[in-house]
Design goal:
Largest sheet: 5 strands, mixed
Strand order of the largest sheet: 10-17-16-12-13
Strand content: over 45%
CATH topology of the largest domain: Immunoglobulin-like
Structural class: mainly beta
Shape: rod-shaped
Helix content: under 10%
Number of helices: 0
Distance between the termini: 80 Å
Order of helices and strands: EEEEEEEEEEEEEEEEE
Length: 182
């Protein structure tokens, strides 16, 4: 009887799901893969598959809710059912690397660079969401360009706070924006 082993992937998936790649031994012996209590079909475009060497198993993890922390995957061979192995689910926090910015009184553009910007769904200034037409994401997802409105007409305008929020409602760190006197 071949010994089947399975080790969870180190990297977490987002709630969008995706392919979880496990490592192990004798994975060609598997006859069933379950996510929770749901049996997943073998092969095809949406099923599980092991590599020819029997050392890697790819399992398609479906979309999860933002609060899900892990998904249990259980495998079975003709000889044994292994204990469930957890696939971590984590919501990536957008991080802005851009330092404080200054814009003209008439308004202007600010380029925000950082990480985890691919899922940004809104940009806000002082807690007020900007119109989606006021910002664009670069095709490489490493930069967001924001067009800021003209400076408020009050005599003294404190620094403004600019931040982004992703589709799971996780907010980034804030960037201070100051307007030049006008």
């Amino acid at each position: 009887m071949p010994k089947v082993t399975l080790k969870a992937p180190k990297a977490a998936l987002t709630p969008d799901g995706g392919a979880a790649v496990f490592t192990g031994t004798n994975l060609l012996e598997l006859t069933e893969v379950r996510i929770g209590e749901t049996v997943i079909a073998e092969g095809g475009t949406s099923g599980w598959a092991s590599n020819a060497a029997g050392t890697a198993l790819t399992v398609p993890i479906p979309t999860q809710t933002a609060g899900t922390k892990s998904v249990a995957v259980t495998v079975r061979s003709d000889y044994i059912e292994l204990r469930p192995v957890a696939v971590k689910i984590a919501v990536p926090k957008p991080r802005i690397a851009t330092a404080a910015k200054t814009v003209p009184a008439a308004g202007g553009t600010v380029e925000l660079t950082g990480t985890n910007l691919s899922t940004v769904s809104s940009v806000s200034l002082n807690g007020t969401p900007l119109a989606t037409s006021a910002w664009t994401r670069a095709t490489d997802n490493a930069k967001i360009t924001v067009t800021l409105p003209a400076r408020p007409s009050s005599a003294r305008v404190p620094a403004q706070t600019l931040l982004v929020t992703n589709k799971w409602d996780v907010k980034s760190n804030a960037v201070k924006v100051s307007y030049l006197a006008g």
